[in-house]
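Standup notes
- HV: blocked on the assembly model, inputs below
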Amino acid sequence: MKVNQNGIYFSVPSKKFVNKKIKMDFSILFQNNLKMFLPEIFLATSILILTLHGSFIISSRHLGFPLIVRSVSKLSILILLLTVFLSNNNSINFMLTYQNTFMFDLLTFYVKEIILISVLLCVFIFENSIIRNQINNFEYFILLLSATLGLLLLVNSYDFLSLYLAIEMQSLCLYVLAGAKRNSSFSTDAGIKYFILGSFSSALLLFGISFIYGCTGTTNFDSLSLLLAQPDSTNTIFSLNSLIEKALLCIATAFLFKIAAAPFHMWSPDVYEGSPTSSTIFFAVVPKIALFAIFLRIFQSIFFIFEDVIVFALILFSMTSVIVGSFVALKQKKLKRLLAYSSISHVGYLLLAFASNSLEATVSLFFYLVIYMLTSISIWSIVLSLNTIENQKSPKTLIDLSAIAVTNPILGFSAMVAFFSLAGVPPLAGFLAKMKIFTAALGASLFFPSFVAILSSVISSYYYIRIVKTIYFEKNQRCFFIFPVSYSCALTTGISTFFLIFLFINPTLVLLITQKMALCLFLIKRCLS
Amino acid sequence: MPFFNKKMSFLIQEYLPILILFFVASGLACIILGASYLLGTQKPDTEKVSVYECGFNPYEDSRNKFDVRFYVIAIIFLVFDLEAMFLFPWAVSLGQITSMGFWTMMDFLLELVIGFIYAWNIGALEWE
């Protein structure tokens, strides 16, 4: 028996076979790899079983072709809960698996936990909305779980090929989720728009990847980081420097498309508005953190010698996103569109932290992402609670928020807390996150971009404050009947409101976790350079 | 130009077989097509020379309604076509890839069969 570099035992053939081709037993070589993928394997198997279960039950004549959306949603909550437990049991800190195509470290561990918990909360709050929207396909949840699986694989991927496959897996599921309400032309329109623009951005990503493969001859992050770690003229890679820069710009463009940063944001308000509310919640809350984690890894710990170009592009797009997000949102009347533009401006702040490119900035980026996720969960569950008889068919506008502080004081208070946290008003977690980002940006001497971002943040606080004014002071002349707030929405809103206040007083736990996540990116960089 | 230097020509080493294949393939195609054009008897009519389009008239308004079941069948066909594409190299290299390779393909086939059962159950294969 002998040990290879990954610490895995493999058997060495005896002397008389030395001249023949050595046959390695792959099942021994890969035994630890399967252990690392336990949560993903569980999730994938559950998706398959759920597919069979659903298709047999809905086509069964003697059960009378039942609708099983409610039971499947409960089952998918159970599946996600068990996946959270499984991924929590992971004890290995760092490992490269499957010929270095996937990697595991603390960053992937925490990001996967956050993704799974946020998907869990999403499914928890939008169960009733799906039934009210008459999306009667149980496939909706299967696609949702597949998108989650794609996101988990995306976070782990350590090779451009696995990255591309994982991105395609999650985005194909998201295109279908956008068009899930088949009888609504808005939803179909959103699905097609998302599909066309999303596949265009995937094409850009592939274009960049092919350039990098052409220049370096490898798609593996491990090999690439070793290859680029020797910054002197003897390394022949550096004659191709400018080509790799262009390739990285293509990849960055694809990434900015996916997170809807400003010049590439045109799809996001239409898709948010057109797709059923449940899908909108998923788009708004879940995929951003996975995309940020993987692209931070690419730009900060693999291609960090090209950081000048990337930082310049990111600063530019950060400023445009902040400006577009805050100015265009001023005129929006529909709630979903408003939240879409608000998410664009928040992406701008995140990109500012990305461009600052220091440990402190990356910590603040992850902190902001976590707080933003919490706030959006709170806001969307409040949006789901605003159901009157009139607005069942039409899209929700700001008028639906009017005077909820009178009809339901606790809901009104939570909405106020959530919107103030988005605006960044002091005794709330949103303020802390924003402040950390601006201090990190000033620390990296990005004075003009942070000046622009702070000014736009002042402008954007106007429309958040206007919403709070609508909640508390608007007089509603009409008489309307409000459906009672569902148990799950009330619970989620309550918990996230508590955390939005609590994390301002004591953010230690989240800061510790984000510090660990950021260190994973920066340790590799320091070791190589 | 070091790239085309004959001594260290990476290009020639790697791509010469492809160049040979390209010439052989185009030569063979010319021979076969030319022989059937010259030697065969030809009686053209409208149906024979028109473009083949799966039972549709190729030249008509493109805004016609088009049954969604064609798409479903096409997607299912694509999946099984790709499956065959994976199965051939797998079958050839089965000797080298041991039990791990074998079970990986079995897993793939199992997932495909589950998809097939799903499509069957929800009635995607029915054409009345």
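- HV (later): unblocked. The interface with chain B takes residues 23-27, 29-30, 48, 51-52, 55-56, 58-59 of chain A (CB under 8 Å). Residues 185-216 of chain A form the longest helix (32 residues).
- Next: hand off to the docking folks.
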